């Protein structure tokens, strides 16, 4: 607090406390003339003298409204100064006439960062969408329809193309078959025996990102006479955007006509 505000403040406090100048100077160990000159604003006392006077008046100079206001004023000044410096820095940064390459580098860093974040976000979203679409494309009903059409018309090689090269088949009451060639030979033997599919229906399926498992029922006939029915369990694997059979099991649950099966 500066003069003459300091002197006025001391005079107000003396009056509010009901003291006289003589009583105050006794507490402060000052002479009356010095106190009078301070009140009139003629002199600016040392900080020690100010602290002694305010202590005698039972008042802290740091708690005075003007002192608090002064602190806020200083804080506002510092903030405004800092904002001005930031503003000047930004202006200088966008002024490419000096230190062009350095400034271009500084400006490009946040831009590239934002671009990379957007790129990874979009890539992830596209990948998730692609996986969802591929899962939707797994249509077991359509696959079963094609299998029956191809098998009953003797297109065994077309059926073979739906299996992986190292696919595994476990037919009912027959040894396990490994590989596409062995599976084709097995299906050809069934076809040559006169077996034809009457029913091949999916009952349930579970589809993950790249694996699908389908369970269903089948019925076969010989010379248009149903001879057996059973269940199948097929595991599909998504390879290069195409669903391929990796493992397959088949089990006969019921023999319908033993005479026709001989």
- Specify the structural class: alpha+beta
Average pLDDT number: 79
CATH topology label of the largest domain: Nuclear Transport Factor 2, Chain: A
Our measurement of the CA-to-CA distance between the termini, rounded to an integer number of angstroms, reads: 118 Å
Number of E-state strands: 6
Low-pLDDT runs of 5+ residues are: none
Task: Give the CATH level 1 class of the largest domain.
Answer: Alpha Beta
- Please state roughly what percent of the residues sit in beta strands, choosing from under 5%, 5-15%, 15-25%, 25-35%, 35-45% or over 45%: 15-25%
Structure overview:
The protein has helices spanning 5-17, 21-28, 32-40, 47-56, 65-94, 100-137, 140-152, 156-160, 180-192, and strands spanning 163-170, 177-178, 195-207, 211-222, 225-239, 242-255. Strand 3 (195-207) and strand 4 (211-222) form a beta hairpin. It has three domains: 5-63, Orthogonal Bundle (434 Repressor (Amino-terminal Domain)); 68-132; 138-255, Nuclear Transport Factor 2, Chain: A (Roll). Helix content is 53%, strand content 24%. The chain has a six-stranded mixed β-sheet, with helices on one face. The protein starts with a helix and ends in a 7-residue tail after the last strand.
Features:
262 residues, 434 Repressor (Amino-terminal Domain), 6 strands, 9 helices, alpha+beta, single chain, rod-shaped
């Amino acid at each position: 607090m500066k003069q003459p505000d300091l002197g006025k403040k001391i005079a107000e406090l003396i009056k509010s406390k009901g003291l006289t100048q003589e009583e105050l100077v006794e507490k402060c160990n000052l002479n009356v003339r010095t106190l009078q000159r301070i009140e009139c604003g003629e002199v600016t006392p040392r900080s020690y003298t100010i602290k002694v006077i305010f202590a005698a008046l039972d008042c802290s100079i740091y708690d005075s409204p003007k002192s608090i206001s002064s602190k806020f004023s200083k804080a506002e000044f510092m903030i405004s100064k800092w904002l001005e410096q930031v503003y000047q820095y930004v202006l200088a940064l966008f002024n490419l006439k000096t230190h062009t390459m350095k400034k271009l580098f500084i400006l490009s860093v946040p831009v590239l960062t934002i671009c990379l974040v957007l790129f990874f976000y979009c890539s992830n979203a596209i990948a998730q969408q692609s996986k969802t679409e591929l899962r939707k494309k797994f249509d077991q009903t359509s696959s079963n329809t094609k299998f029956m059409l191809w098998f009953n018309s003797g297109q065994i090689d077309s059926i073979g193309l739906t299996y992986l090269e190292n696919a595994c088949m476990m037919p009912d009451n027959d040894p396990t078959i490994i590989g596409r060639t062995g599976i084709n030979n097995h299906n050809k033997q069934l076809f040559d025996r006169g077996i034809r599919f009457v029913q091949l229906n999916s009952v349930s399926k579970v589809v993950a990102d790249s694996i699908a498992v389908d369970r269903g029922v089948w019925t076969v006939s010989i010379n248009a006479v149903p001879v057996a029915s059973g269940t199948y369990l097929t595991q599909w694997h998504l390879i290069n955007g195409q669903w391929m059979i990796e493992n397959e099991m088949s089990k006969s649950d019921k023999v319908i006509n033993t005479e026709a099966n001989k």
